[in-house]
Every structure is written in C-alpha cells, then in structure tokens.
C-alpha cells in the first residue's frame, strides 16, 4: 500500500545537522524513529524529528546511544505513527534482544482510517528492521513468547486504564499522607483473560517510570498518565520499596525473566510468599499476582516448607498459630498491597478459603479500593465463553440450542490421537498449541523417564517433563501440561483432556467428583491442623475450577476430549459446536 523508506545517521550533533540541512520530511512531517546502541533501544514518533533528536541528546538516559533510524512514508499521519510506534515498542520488548528504554504509558490502540492496510506495512517495516538486526526473531515467535505476553508495554482496555489511573492516584495520595486511612489493601478482580497480571506489571512499570523521571523529560501528551510525571510525584516515589509476589513457581520465573529485561522493573523484587515472609523488610507496596493461590495453614510440599511456615509466623507475630495464612504475611510485610485475584481459579484446598477471598473483596469495595475487570483480552470467544464454561461445569447449562461464540474454534474429539494430531498441526502453523489435562493420572515419569503417564485410545503420553516454562520448552507439543504449569499462561490452542476424576452421574443427573481417579495428593489431602475433612463435594469445587482454567487457556480455540462416557455425552449435548465443520 505504501512506499516507506528508512534513513540512517549517527546519533550525534553532526548526524542531526545532516538531517536538519535536508529539511522536508525531517522537519515538518509525522515519522517514527528509533535510537539504539548495542544493547538498548528507544522508539518514538514526532512531526519534527530533528528537533526531537536535539532534545534526546540532552537526556542522560539516552547517553551512549549511537544510531538513529527514521521511518518516512508519504502517507503517514499522526495516528499511523502512534500505532507503528506502539507496535515497534511491543515487538522490541517481546524480542528481548534490546532493553527498551521507553515508558509504557504511551502505548495506544486507537482505530483510524485504513488501519488494516497500514498494519500490513508495519510488518514490512519490521522485516526491514530485522534485516538490519534490530530484531532477532519473527513476529509470530515474538508474539508467542512470555517476554511479549508478560511485557508491561501494553495498550490497556478501558476498565484496565481506569483501574491503573485510580490506583496510582490513590497510592500517591497515601504516600503523601502516611497516616491516611484509605491505604492498605487494593483488590483487582477478574475472570480468566481479563488481564489482571497485565494491570499489575503495567502499574509497577508506570510507578518506576514516574520515580525515575527527570526534569528534562517531556511527558507524552497522548498518554492519559502524563499528568503523573511531575516533580512532586517523583519525590513521593523516591526510595519506595516495591515487590511482586507470585505463588506459582513456573509463572514466577517467567515474570522474573521479564523484569530482568525491563529498565525500571529491574529494581522490583519478584518473590515467592515464603521468600517475602522471610525477608527482614517491610515494603511500601507489594503486588500479589494470583492472590487466590496464597496458602492457608496446611501440610506443605516438603518438611522444610512446613518449618518455614512456623518460623515466619513466629518472626512476624511473636508466636505460631494455625490461623495465620500467607495473606497475613503479605499484610505484615507491606504498608500497601494490591491483590490480583479470581476465586474461581483456586485449585487446591490449601489455597485461601473462598470466605477469605469474599471478605477481601467486600472490604476493598467498602473502602472504594475494589476494581473489577470485565473486558476479555485472551479468549476470542469472549466473556460469554468464560461464563458458559463455568456454568457448564457447574451443571447449569441447557442443551446447546443456538449458542455460538463467533469464530472461536471449539471442537469435541472422540479420539485422543486425532486431537493430538490437530494440536501438532496447529503448533507447526501458529505455535503455542498444547495438550493439557486434569490430574487424573499418576506421574510415573517423575521417577522413570522411560515410562508413560497417560494411555488413551492406544496413545501413550507423558506429563510435562519440566515445571519451569514448560509451554516454551523443547518437546512440549508431545507432552501434557498440568494445571500447575499452565495457570497464568496463554496458549493459541488448548487440547483439554477431561480425565476420569470428573464424571456424570446419570441417576443423580449431575457432574460428580471421582476421588479414586484424582491423583493430586495435595489436591485432596485433609487438613488436620485446621480440623478440616474435605468431602467429595468440597473437592468437586476445586476440580471444576481446574478444568475451567484449562478450558480457558486457548486464545484461538479449545478442543475437548472426555474420558467418562456419560460426561462425554452430557457435554456433547451442551457444547455449542454446530458452527464447526471439522468435528470428529
């Protein structure tokens, strides 16, 4: 559609002078530019690129950058440049080859005339820059990576933007008035795919950018957060101690990787709940991702962790009580805290009780610190699909009728081999297609790597062979991921195996839990410390949540295979599959 060109020069007075002498599109035309050295890059847009380069030369943060590039196109306007700038920042952040020096507050996703055609040009510009070694991977490889998905460089939905703006205003007021009664606990609540983690990471990057801003910086007037970049707020955030707590090991490691690559976030510690509890420090702000996965007192996975639980309680509270939870540790170790949670994603009895989560939500709402997120960012089937899955597993769904989720690829398989073959085909085509399953098979391969864990329809499969970034590990497409390796992650396509731990009782006419088929020992273990004996109905709640999480991992599609024959027919009658033409 367009005929762009990329001009190059040294980021020096002489290089800028060359562009100044040329005039024309270098002085009065909307363009996008990039500045870089061997490890850092900054992307911007301007209608007067030579003037903007002179301003950047005065900025200490740009010191050492040596190369200028400017993308010029006769058809570009301000909207196109803002969009291209946002795309390049997101792609560079996700590629990981360079540290991106930009703030995250200028990322936009505004519509404009002929945007689809222009975005084809963006891909051509990307490929040209890739030839110049500004990128190391292709766009699909970048957009499938954790660096991209967990990056703070995101355009926010309306409800996310409102939450971030209100939370920052409230925190700044609290920091200005340390005795303010409005401090304490903030709750960001949302179902799967509404971007709770995005809000948490975006917010931390924004706070760090404000703290590290300089008087010579020019706030982006197109950002709704530009008003926060003032000297008073910088002073309030100077020296503020911030940490992020992530209960799940695999997701925590992915977040740590993103933070190490991102200026500003490199100063934010990413901790487990036990690491936070053992720190001899009270943080000004702690953000807890997947806060519903914080533990109450229960038998931990190792004797050492049981000792830590007791030692931390004594260190924090002077004595050990079974009523203390990891949430109490977070409260004791933070002056302010933000909890990102969804009670429907609690998957083990050791997780915070539903009653505790409800009290948190009610308390935050009473203090006007409760932010519900509703816009669906992950699943193309939308919030209707998320709600439908929950109703379906709860037994509240009628026959399929005319229900449809648009272009979302929802399929039902009767043969596991055929579902696996389709997953492998799609993984070759678009990447991030994986098999996942409920914990209804023993993990034999933990002690015998030559064994197989799951055998169905003559097909032998193994559980995930690593618990660290399994989704992106070599050979993952031929393995089966458990809830503990996929919760918090996105897939393009998820092939979900609903095991015999979930059945349909024809006589009772409802979905039931089969304890004998459930292999997660910690997932069905009673809690004698708290005097709790878990009934089948108690555990059914957690197993339904597990399958709800698994069935909402796929952004483009979800495939379903059911082991129990009665449940298979029950779900087949209720899943809206008629829009698909490739059903088995």
Automatic annotation (TrEMBL):
GIY-YIG domain residues are 28-100
- Listed InterPro entries: GIY-YIG_endonuc, GIY-YIG_endonuc_sf, P-loop_NTPase, SLFN_3-like_DNA/RNA_helicase
**CDD domains attached here?**
GIY-YIG_COG3410 (cd10439)
Protein name stated in the entry = DUF2075 domain-containing protein
Q: From which source organism is this entry? A: Labedella gwakjiensis
């Amino acid at each position: 559609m367009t005929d762009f060109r990329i001009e190059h020069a040294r980021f020096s007075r002489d290089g800028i002078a060359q562009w100044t002498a040329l005039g024309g599109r270098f002085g009065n035309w909307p363009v996008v530019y990039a500045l870089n050295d061997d490890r850092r890059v900054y992307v911007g847009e301007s209608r007067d690129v030579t003037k903007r380069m002179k301003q950047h030369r005065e900025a200490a943060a740009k010191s050492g950058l040596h190369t200028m590039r400017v993308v010029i196109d006769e058809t570009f306007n301000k909207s196109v440049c803002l969009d291209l700038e946002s795309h390049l920042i997101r792609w560079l952040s996700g590629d990981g080859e360079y540290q991106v020096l930009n703030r995250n507050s200028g990322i936009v996703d505004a519509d404009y005339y002929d945007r689809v055609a222009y975005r084809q040009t963006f891909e051509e510009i990307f490929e040209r820059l890739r030839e110049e070694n500004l990128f190391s991977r292709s766009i699909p490889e970048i957009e499938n990576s954790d660096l991209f998905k967990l990056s703070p460089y995101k355009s926010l939905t309306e409800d996310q933007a409102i939450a971030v703006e209100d939370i920052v205003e409230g925190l700044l007021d609290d920091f200005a008035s340390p005795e303010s009664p409005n401090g304490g606990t903030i709750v960001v609540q949302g179902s799967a795919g509404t971007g709770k983690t995005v809000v948490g990471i975006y917010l931390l990057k924004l706070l760090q950018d404000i703290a590290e801003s300089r008087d010579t910086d020019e706030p982006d007037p197109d950002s709704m957060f530009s008003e926060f970049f003032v000297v008073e707020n910088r002073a309030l955030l100077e020296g503020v101690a911030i940490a992020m707590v992530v209960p799940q090991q695999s997701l925590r490691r992915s977040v740590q990787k993103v933070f190490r690559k991102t200026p500003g976030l490199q100063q934010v510690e990413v901790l487990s709940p036990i690491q936070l509890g053992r720190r001899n420090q009270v943080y000004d702000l702690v953000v807890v991702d997947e806060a519903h996965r914080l533990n109450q007192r229960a038998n931990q996975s190792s004797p050492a962790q049981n000792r830590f639980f007791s030692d931390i309680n004594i260190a924090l509270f002077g004595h050990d009580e079974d009523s203390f939870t990891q949430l109490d540790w977070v409260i004791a170790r933070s002056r302010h805290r933000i909890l990102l949670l969804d009670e429907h994603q609690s998957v083990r009895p050791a997780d915070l009780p539903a009653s505790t989560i409800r009290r948190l939500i009610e308390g935050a709402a009473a203090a006007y610190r409760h932010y519900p997120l509703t816009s669906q960012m992950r699943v193309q089937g939308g919030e209707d699909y998320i709600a439908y899955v929950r109703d379906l597993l709860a037994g509240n769904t009628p026959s399929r009728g005319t229900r449809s989720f648009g272009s979302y690829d929802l399929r039902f398989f009767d043969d596991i081999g055929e579902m696996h073959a389709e997953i492998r085909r799609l993984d070759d085509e678009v990447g991030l297609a994986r098999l996942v399953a409920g914990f209804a098979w023993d993990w034999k391969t933990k002690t015998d790597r030559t064994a197989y864990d799951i055998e169905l329809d003559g097909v032998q499969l193994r559980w995930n062979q690593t618990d660290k970034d399994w989704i992106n590990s070599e050979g993952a497409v031929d393995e089966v991921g458990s809830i503990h390796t996929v919760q918090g992650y996105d897939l393009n396509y998820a092939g979900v195996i609903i095991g015999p731990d979930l059945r349909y009782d024809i006589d009772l006419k409802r979905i039931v839990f089969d304890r004998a088929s459930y292999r997660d020992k910690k997932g069905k273990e009673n809690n004698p410390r708290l005097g709790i004996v878990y009934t089948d109905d108690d555990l059914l709640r957690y197993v339904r949540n597990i399958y709800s999480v698994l069935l909402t991992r796929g952004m483009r599609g979800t495939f379903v295979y059911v082991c129990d024959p009665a449940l298979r027919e029950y779900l087949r009658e209720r899943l809206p599959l008629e829009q698909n033409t490739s059903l088995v």
